[in-house]
Design goal:
13 helices; 15-stranded mixed β-sheet; two-stranded antiparallel sheet; alpha/beta
Length: 529
Amino acid sequence: MPFNYSIMKIKFLFVVCLLIQLTSSAQNKDAAKYAAMVNADGLKSHLTIIADDKMEGRETGTEGQRKAAIYISNHFKSLGLKPVISTENYQQLFPLKKDSVVAAKISINNNELISGKDFLIPLSSNETNQFNSNTIVFAGYGINDNNYNDYEHIDVKGKVVCFFSGEPKKNGNYFLSTDGLSSAWSRNGIGKKLEAAAEKGAVGAICIDLMQKSFSEQAIRRNKKTNVYYPSEDNNTKTINFAYISHEAANLLIGADFESLLDGVRNNKFLNETTKEITAPISYNFNKYSETINASNVLGMIEGTDKKDEYVFLTAHYDHLGMRDGKVYNGADDDGSGTVTVMQMATAFAKAKKEGKGPRRTIVFMTVSGEEKGLWGSEYYTDHPLLPLEKTSVDLNTDMIGRLDTERKTSDTLNYVYVVGHDKISSELPIINEGMNNENTKLVLDYKFDDPKDPNRIYYRSDHYNFARKGVPVLFFYDGMLQADYHKTTDDIEKINWPLFEKRAKMIFYTAWEMANRNEMLKRDKPLP
């Protein structure tokens, strides 16, 4: 009897399909087993501590933030998570600065100006330095651009340059940018103007701010001592020291032309024909004390199996606003909820690993600080990655999933979550996330914050963004609580909706499980927004 290859082939394909189905079924059962550990009881046990008054609001650079970091790192240690290379007690330290004035002196024509009345030297934007010159050059707006140049007829090398804030318009419209709005010459302060002056050889600069006729008490106080700030690492930008001067001091310096120049600036007129040299000896002496204060990101990881050199990041920020006037901003939802979700997912994945059901890819659990200050911790990590970003398949970021959006008036108010980033970087993001949700949790996934016209610009306002700007696919899970108790002392644990919080956390766990165990890393097939 002849051998029937067709029948044999059909039987073989049947067996393969059956094995795939059985494997998939087993994976689903495993995922459900460990997802059960991501529950309200576990979330509440951690959030009761993270959002307690004893954590003092977890403000970055404070003792409260350090207490929270120790609590999270101790949890990671108790689970047996591996420390990520170059961390110390599961923490990646990053430096912040805090400045105070030692000396701030300016004299023009041998007349000593009064700090706070005649001038201010912005603390965090100036380094300890001094300069002297016999000449001050008035340079209009201080712009050096192909379409408009205040430096065309002047030489500022070895001299001090003086310029106004703002930029000119042509026929009533901004013209130095392509979008019809003000350009980088004024949109982001005076940094670009200082860079231009430095490139032209100026030793220092004086700025006259149209809106700052004199200096407020708040501005004076702020320039005696700063809060903590994230120091710029852009060492390639050439810059110089500068000071703002009051309109009264500028009038004395420039003389009779000052009022007409000021009127021109109010109307955004061209000033490049009004540039001139002023013979006036100037002496500038600025000295500050800078204190370095370390903040930290807390990282622990569960090593993968056959794809251990690829990574899935689960992130949240554990910092909040700290204390104001003796009142504690506990940030139970923002972002205590995300922090404890990462912690509880770590518990579930660690249990799976111990029972031989560990992930194929390495999962990194990272809680960052500095988010409330400007995404500092995630910026530092993505600029100083401890694991290769090109091998990071995805970042699933959780920032506020414990509350309800009080502005949402639809029937699904108790069964939704906002998902941000689904249509960016990777076309596979919504397919996987929606698949896991449809199979397991059946939440309404709302993409409204991915609308390019979203006035809140939510995509740019949490830590996933720093991964995205480096090309890593991201999903950000969020409850939309922008009104109600957002950034208020009333964001407390008593306001958490535990059943919905648990359901959202489970959905994120299922998505992470799939992304950690699928055959391929996520495609990066969409351009960066």
